[in-house]
Amino acid sequence: MNIGTASRQSRLPVKTIRYYEEIGLVRPLRGDNGYREFSQADLERLKFLQRSRSLGFSIEECRDLLSLYEDTNRASADVKAITCQKIQEVDRKIAELKSLKRVLLEMVEACHGDDRPDCPIMDDLSGRERTHGGKQH
């Protein structure tokens, strides 16, 4: 199949498929005309990559997972370990986002949100101390 068909069936943009080929994640054959010819196995790899990337796995993690996917003697413990690491990363990102939300909420609560130019949010973003009536707080 050509790259357009592979793109539609894997739900990956053509540009992404070319990138995956460039970094060695897929290796389609080249026909006599020089065009890429994707096999069913290539399509399965692309679908695997699409799903893995949609779950947040990095390119290197996908490389490791693909290696395990193709190894019929793999230990499921190896796959589970990579997935557990991803869960820890997701938990860390959730904690960071919750902290960010708290800071933003504090900024919003400190702002009157009226017609006056004095704005604690702008003061915070600029690194200035808040002023109120000419006095610093």
Automatic annotation (TrEMBL):
Family annotation (PROSITE patterns): HTH_MERR_2
GO MF terms, alphabetically ordered: copper ion binding; DNA binding; DNA-binding transcription factor activity
GO CC list: cytoplasm
CDD domains xrefs: HTH_CueR (cd01108)
Cellular localization per UniProt: Cytoplasm
UniProt KW Hydrolase keyword: no
Keyword annotations: Cytoplasm, DNA-binding, Transcription, Transcription regulation
HTH merR-type domain location: 1-68
Chief location: cytoplasm
Transit peptide recorded as keyword: no
InterPro entries: CueR, DNA-bd_dom_put_sf, MerR-type_HTH_dom, MerR_fam, Tscrpt_reg_MerR_DNA-bd
One BP term from GO: positive regulation of DNA-templated transcription
PANTHER family noted in UniProt: HEAVY METAL-DEPENDENT TRANSCRIPTIONAL REGULATOR HI_0293-RELATED, REDOX-CYCLING DRUG-SENSING TRANSCRIPTIONAL ACTIVATOR SOXR
Protein name, entry field: Cu(I)-responsive transcriptional regulator
